[in-house]
Amino acid sequence: MGKNNKFWKFLFTFLTYLLVAAVAVCITFVVTVRHFSGITKLDQLESLILERFIGDADKTAMEDGAAAGMIASLGDRWSYYIPASEYQAHQEQMENAYVGVGITVGVNEQTKYLDIRQVNSTGGAAQAGILPGDVLTKVEGQDVSKLGLTKASEMIRGEEGTTVVLTILRDNEEKEVTVTRKKIMVQVAKGKLLEDKIGYVKIVNFDARCAQETIAVIEDLLEQGAKSIVFDVRFNPGGFQTELVKLLDYLLPEGEIFRSKYYTGHESVDKSDAKCLDVPMAVLINGDSYSAAEFFAAALNEYDKAILVGEATTGKGYFQSTFPLKDGSAANISIGKYFTPKGVCLADVGGLKPEVEEKVDKQTATGIYAETLAPEKDPQIQAAVNALKKAS
Predict the structure, then answer these.
(1) Average pLDDT over the chain, rounded to whole?
(2) Checking DSSP bridges between strand 173-180 and strand 182-185, what pairing results, if any?
């Protein structure tokens, strides 16, 4: 009898334990379900990783990756995500003014170092003797090939007046250079009077001050005696519609110059007045003439004001708007299509085709981008000069 009492007591205790464990499991399940109810899948996934992942998880990195992935899923090469760490640099670029050392770099696909492609003449890098063609291998002693472009760029940027130590490779020899960070105003337009009174105007982008600076350069060349103009928008990434419209209004006669159609269906039209620049023109284009640069060339050509010279463009027909997000990051999203004066969307026709095609090899293209190639050595500039001579 005593043994039976012990057995039933053990059985009761065991069943009670099972009941408590089952209730605990149910409570945990209910809490988990309630915890995730009413939130998005991304929120749920983030919570799961942060709470359950056995390793370390970087919340900012996860959210940046998710945001970039969402925009990439649109399949639109012109829409992109801007992390909070890069947003200030993005804004500075749009304003054509930034604090830095004054170099433009690109990743070398073989070495993963940074090839220095352009050096701003007013920046600290130029004053320290850095030249286009140099290779940046280290920033503050850290290997650039391991840092990557984004991290290296962040380390190079800093407060005005401070310094950064860069290691430069030139002629197979490394050299450490201490460079002072300065506020640099990008020169948006540059001009030069070529042979036969042909004015050459290089437009770097269509961001802040583009119209004002370009018009000033044109008028200076006209005062020097220029009788025709070659505009150079090769490697021009585009920029603001407002700057583009101001410049086209100065150049073109009365008529429609720009039509925008927004995602809402609303359309807007920009027009020019009767006053215009009445001289022969040519526009240099290539595969890296994007957005406003393509449109600039197309508008002048459709009004029979300019000959297109160089290489075919890509065909960008969408325009974007940048939307700041609450954590300091931003999303640059295509929100509409734009059309040339004749109603053509460049995305639908695959870009612009030059009337005078002049292709260049990679070495020549590098010299054009770095602005180290003299006009008389640039086959595309010479092709434009010859085209204007024939047209006159």
Answers:
(1) 90
(2) unpaired
User: Which domains does the chain show, CATH number per domain?
Assistant: 2-72 (no CATH), 97-184 (2.30.42.10), 187-391 (3.90.226.10)
Mean pLDDT of 189-217: 97
- For 238-268, how does the pLDDT look when each residue is reduced to its tens digit (9 = 90+)? 999 999 999 999 999 999 999 999 999 999 9
For the CA atoms of 195, 201, 204, 206, the dihedral, rounded to the nearest 10 degrees, stands at: -160
Say how many CA atoms lie within 13 Å of 383 toward its Cβ: 19
Record the tokens describing residue 83, joined without a space: 């992390």
Task: Kindly tell me the burial class for residue 204, based on how many C-beta atoms sit within 10 Å of its own C-beta (0-12, 13-18, 19 or more).
Answer: buried
Question: CB within 8 A of 250, min separation 6: which ones?
Answer: 211, 215, 218, 275, 276, 277
Distance set, CA 318 to CA 71, 335, 372 (Å):
15, 7, 32
| Spatial CA neighbour of 317 closest among 69, 78, 62 | 78
Q: Residue 348: its pLDDT value, please?
A: 93
Closest Cα partner for 268 from 277, 257, 279?
257
Planar angle of CA 247, 209, 322, nearest 5 degrees = 95
Distance CA 75, CA 56 (A): 31
Q: 187 is written with which tokens?
A: 């020169």
Structure confidence by residue, pLDDT tens digits, 56-97:
999 999 999 999 999 999 999 999 999 998 898 899 889 998
Tell me the CA distances in angstroms from 279 to 55, 107, 218, 304, one per residue in order. Answer: 67, 41, 11, 11
Q: Are 243 and 203 in contact (CB under 8 A)?
A: no
> Residue 4: which H helix or E strand, with range?
helix 2-36
How much is the average pLDDT of 100-107? 92
pLDDT computed for residue 38 by the predictor? 57
pLDDT of residue 223: 97
The SS3 call for residue 240 is coil
Q: Which two tokens stand for residue 96?
A: 């054509």
